[in-house]
Amino acid sequence: MKKQINILLILLVISIPIVAQNNNMIFVKGASYKMGDMTGKGKDNERPVHEVTINSFFVSKFQVTVGDFKDFISETRYITDCEKKKGGMIWLVENRKQKYYFDSTANWRNVGYVPKDNQPVTFVSWNDAVAFCNWKSKKDKLTPCYKIIGDSVVWDKSAKGYRLLTEAEWEYMARSGGKEYQFSWGNDSLPFINGKKAANIKDETCQSVLDKDLHVWKGYEDGFVYTSPVGSFAPNEIGIYDICGNVYEWCWDWFDDNYYNISSQDNPDGPLKGKKRVCRNVGYCCPIYWIAISRRGLGETNGYGENMGFRIGLNK
Q: Which of 16, 108, 109, 311 qualifies as a FRET site for 129, CA 20 to 30 Å off?
């Protein structure tokens, strides 16, 4: 009898998904919710508000960091799209002036300065994010989700590996499980959760080093001009950090301005094809009127920027 119990315990341990042992992944229980701009202040592509049903999934607490990405590069010798193109546009504050200029040395290692390992990785393309997901899946002995064939990427939805969130999953997660919130912290006018600062955005900290900027969040100081270490601010109600601010996050979906008019209700994952992919969230230096959960960003699959990053998800 004792031998049978031991065998049963071994089988149970083997059956536990590796994510259960990873405290950086949060379980998000699926449900139906209303997706889109409910304030009437958003762009046309954020409407109509429509009901969406999402299956349960896991998502990383934090945006992928420089340290995480460094491990990926070290093991695979992968060359990012930015490095292939030899540079990118950098946003810096110099002599109290905003500067946005091309730097041939820019990449995830150099963003105008050398980022620390605990800051979110930037200058990564959608292609780079997909490659990272496949690498991490193999590393954690999970089946990769993506089949990369030339310039095409096919998502195997039966695979249990790491992946990018769909746009609908991202908004559901950002709304703390589909609540009718305008921001990650709710609907309050300033970014605080239970009295704690809740976001790295363009605020009075940024204003303090600039001569003039009319598009900062007045009455709020996050203490960072550029990106902040992940997890520096209060998480949303389900334990996810940096939903509004720090860096943009790549999603799986192709972008279509009119997609909300034709979106399916059950686990929508975007149009079948397109020219650009969706990104969500906003960057640390984006103007105040961009900062809302419903705002939709977009970019080329091989595009990147000084405030473009990602976080990862996992099927239940």
A: 16
